[in-house]
Design goal:
Blueprint (H helix, E strand, L loop, with lengths): L1 H31 L6 H19 L2 E4 L3 E5 L2 E4 L2 E4 H6 L1 H9 L1 H23 L9 H23 L15 E3 H4 L8 E3 H23 L1 H11 L1 H6 L4 H23 L9 H16 L4 H18 L2 H6 L3 H16 L14
Antiparallel strand pairs: 1-4, 2-3, 5-6
Helix pairs in contact: 1-8, 1-11, 1-12, 1-13, 2-5, 2-6, 2-11, 2-12, 5-11, 8-9, 8-11, 9-11, 12-13, 12-15, 13-15
Main location: membrane
Keywords: Amino-acid transport, Cell membrane, Membrane, Transmembrane, Transmembrane helix, Transport
Protein name: Amino acid/amide ABC transporter membrane protein 1, HAAT family
């Protein structure tokens, strides 16, 4: 039983990333009707926002008078680099700011991702609204490759470790909460933080669409764009903002995922294909379906990664998501919660 609980926790962790990326993909498809294969690149850019902020906070100057070592009670002076943040705010406060660079990167990533999203939509994607989905896939996939190579050029090909704050580097004894012996079920703090963060973002997106006037207009535009336009509402402007919000969701998912998986230039592609499968399984255009499918497939993939399962069916963990997608699409072609008429023309 403890092994099952651990796999469920692992599944919720993976499912959180799948659900957040799939949510952004579905927002874009539901509002603009665009199949955005560049969405994984937005996840990658968010991760490198965290890397960039970490490097900025660690910029410093060489303190020639700093003492670098001591032997036998004698101190030896030497050059030591002091981050500007520690110099300006003091060692304690500056060190804390550097330590919390990943959570602070959320504030840095929000305006960056909004601008990137608006630039993508206004500069490229708006020209493909009425083009076939195949054209949309090709151009956005090409854009993803370009962005990937740009990141590779500036940051290199190797993964860049981006640690979580020291307060979240340990593991939480989850088993004690449910009556198990100590250290029976332990789980990394940051993975639990990521799950909670995903729940907050998902709830915020659904709350925004459900309870704000802006969100209600957007939902109406998703259902009948022409009628909303005839009412004198600039629905195109609102959809551009929704594209920026979707980009922001993907970017924040990438920011918080950096301590779990060190950022690298191809991480966007790694998640894109899986997340697109999640969208198809949940139902094209269905936001609840994207979230539900993300967590379900994350849990299934986690259970398929158990040694007992792999011993019986080697390699099943690599294909389980695609097998489930085939079964669901054969039995429910619109996905779990897909809308009638979407992608059926």
């Amino acid at each position: 039983m403890d092994g099952l609980i651990l796999q469920i926790l692992n599944g919720l962790d993976k499912g959180s990333a799948y659900a957040l990326i799939a949510l952004g993909l579905t927002l874009i498809f539901g509002t603009l009707g665009v199949v955005n294969f560049g969405h994984g690149a937005l996840f990658m850019i968010g991760a490198f926002c965290a890397v960039t902020l970490q490097r900025i906070l660690n910029l410093g100057f060489v303190d020639e008078g700093a003492t670098s070592s001591s032997v036998g009670g004698f101190s030896f002076g030497g050059a030591q680099e002091t981050p500007y943040v520690e110099h300006w705010f003091g060692e304690a406060v500056g060190g804390t700011i550097i330590d919390w660079s990943v959570p602070l990167a959320i504030l840095f990533a929000i305006p960056v991702m909004m601008l990137v999203g608006i630039a993508m939509e206004r500069g490229l994607i708006k020209h493909f609204y009425k083009r076939p989905h195949a054209d949309q896939i090709l151009v956005t996939f090409g854009l993803a490759i370009v962005l990937q190579e740009v990141v590779k050029f500036y940051f290199g090909a190797n993964p860049i470790p981006t640690p979580a704050p020291d307060a979240f580097t340990g593991s939480f004894d989850f088993g004690v909460l449910i009556g198990y012996d100590p250290f029976t079920i332990v789980y990394p703090y940051w993975r639990l933080v990521y799950f909670v963060f995903a729940m907050v973002i998902i709830a915020a997106v659904f709350g925004f669409l459900q309870f704000t006037t802006f969100g209600m207009v957007v939902r109406a535009g998703m259902a009948d764009r022409e009628t909303v336009g005839l009412l004198g509402i600039d629905i195109d402007k609102r959809f551009t903002i929704m594209f920026a919000i979707a980009a922001c969701v993907a970017g924040l998912a990438g920011v918080m995922y950096t301590p779990i998986n060190s950022p690298n230039y191809h991480m966007g592609m790694d998640f894109l294909v899986l997340s697109f499968v999640v969208v198809v399984v949940g139902g094209m255009g269905s936001l609840p379906g994207a979230v539900l499918a993300g967590f379900l497939l994350g849990i299934l993939e986690s259970f398929a990664s158990m040694a007992e399962v792999i011993d019986i069916v080697p390699g099943i963990n690599q294909i389980i998501i695609y097998l489930v997608a085939i079964v669901i699409l054969l039995t429910r072609p619109r996905g779990l919660m897909g809308r009638k008429g979407v992608m059926e023309e």
